[in-house]
């Protein structure tokens, strides 16, 4: 059993998987993050992009039954495509709870039922064999045995959660799809102020940095941020470690490596850790 909080990135790509040679170093799978809780066998999963399949394959090597909670930020394809390919869902020994924030009147099970309806996939949610429960996660802080969770709404194109996990004394914020607006409007200012106070002083911030400023200027309103917007804000709010994620599928390893080096040379002393997240990367947070 763990004595630290172990976080692992199984997918860091935004929008669509990209299985190209020039993407293999940072990884081509879409968003999925695993959190292993200290002193608990229960695992947490954040989003079910294509990286979720690899996490499932790794978990299948564990002896005995599995127990986990899966928190999905929103149902865009890049956060759901791995869902039907998670092998532990096909084993009756396993226990999982799945959470999605409400999408208008549509709830968690309906969203996944639609995603796995016969037009799109041969297996329906009712054919999954694990002990599964589907919860439309309405806003409000929830306490579980080893952690608590809350969310605020992201600035994105559909209702999207920015999850905040409190595990002992440690706080982790997960915002893979969030546009930090620059337009100076009152609504934008209000959002930014709320977001700032929400992330203030957290141990780990995993945040959308799909674009650079130049790209962002052409993509205002698409629901994503530039790394140049995220970093100063994270620094001002005293974030300990910042992981930039949801990389654009057109950003090659060479590009991301260069940006990573640049960001490190400019900001290394502002954070305990700062980087463009890589698939397979692990973070160990002592408790
Ligand atoms: Zn996304
Ligand atoms: Zn999205």
Describe this structure in words.
There is one protein chain. With 287 residues, the protein is α/β, with parallel strands linked by helices. It has a single domain, classed as Ribonuclease Z/Hydroxyacylglutathione hydrolase-like (Metallo-beta-lactamase, Chain A), CATH 3.60.15.10. It is 21% helix and 26% strand. It contains six helices and 14 strands. It has helices at 51-59, 108-115, 186-199, 213-217, 227-236, 253-267, and strands at residues 4-11, 32-36, 43-46, 67-71, 95-100, 131-136, 142-143, 148-153, 161-167, 170-175, 204-208, 241-245, 273-276, 282-286. The strands form two sheets. The protein has a seven-stranded mixed beta sheet with strand order 6-5-4-3-2-1-14. A seven-stranded mixed beta sheet has the order 7-8-9-10-11-12-13. It binds zinc ion (ZN) (2 copies). Residues 74, 76, 156, 177, 223 line the site of one zinc ion.
In short:
The protein is α/β, with parallel strands linked by helices.
Counted by DSSP, the helix tally is: 6
Distance between the termini: 13 Å
Radius of gyration equals: 18 Å
Q: Briefly, what CATH class?
A: Alpha Beta
Order of helices and strands: EEEHEEHEEEEEHEHHEHEE
Decide which structural class fits the backbone: alpha/beta
Task: Report the CATH superfamily.
Answer: Ribonuclease Z/Hydroxyacylglutathione hydrolase-like
The strands making up the biggest β-sheet line up spatially as 6-5-4-3-2-1-14
- The CATH architecture can be named as 4-Layer Sandwich
Spans of at least 5 consecutive residues with low confidence = none
Task: List its traits.
single chain, 287 residues, alpha/beta, Metallo-beta-lactamase, Chain A, 7-stranded mixed β-sheet, 6 helices, 26% strand, binds zinc ion
């Amino acid at each position: 059993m763990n004595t630290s909080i172990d976080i692992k990135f199984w997918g860091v790509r935004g929008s669509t998987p990209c299985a190209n040679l020039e993407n293999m170093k940072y990884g081509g799978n879409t968003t999925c993050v695993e959190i292993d809780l200290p002193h608990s066998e229960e695992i947490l999963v954040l989003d079910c992009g294509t990286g979720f399949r690899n996490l499932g394959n790794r978990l299948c090597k564990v002896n005995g039954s599995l127990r986990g909670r899966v928190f999905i930020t929103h149902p865009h394809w890049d956060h759901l495509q791995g869902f039907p390919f998670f092998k532990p869902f096909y084993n009756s020994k396993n226990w999982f709870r799945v959470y999605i924030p409400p999408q208008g009147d549509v709830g968690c099970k309906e969203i996944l039922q639609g995603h796995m309806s016969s037009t799109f996939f041969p297996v329906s949610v009712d054919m999954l064999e694990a002990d599964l429960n589907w919860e439309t996660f309405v806003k409000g802080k929830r306490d579980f045995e080893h952690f608590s969770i809350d969310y605020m709404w992201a600035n994105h194109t559909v209702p999207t959660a920015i999850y905040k996990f409190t595990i002992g004394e440690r706080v982790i914020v997960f915002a893979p799809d969030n546009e930090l607006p620059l337009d100076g409007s009152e609504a934008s200012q209000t959002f930014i102020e709320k977001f700032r106070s929400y992330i203030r002083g957290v141990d780990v911030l995993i945040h959308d940095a799909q674009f650079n400023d130049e790209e962002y200027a052409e993509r205002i309103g698409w629901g994503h941020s530039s790394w140049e917007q995220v970093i100063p804000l994270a620094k001002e709010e005293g974030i300990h470690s910042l992981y930039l994620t949801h990389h654009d599928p057109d950003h090659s390893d060479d590009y991301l490596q260069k940006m990573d080096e640049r960001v490190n040379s400019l900001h290394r002393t502002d954070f305990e850790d700062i980087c463009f997240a890589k698939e397979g990367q692990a973070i160990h947070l002592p408790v």
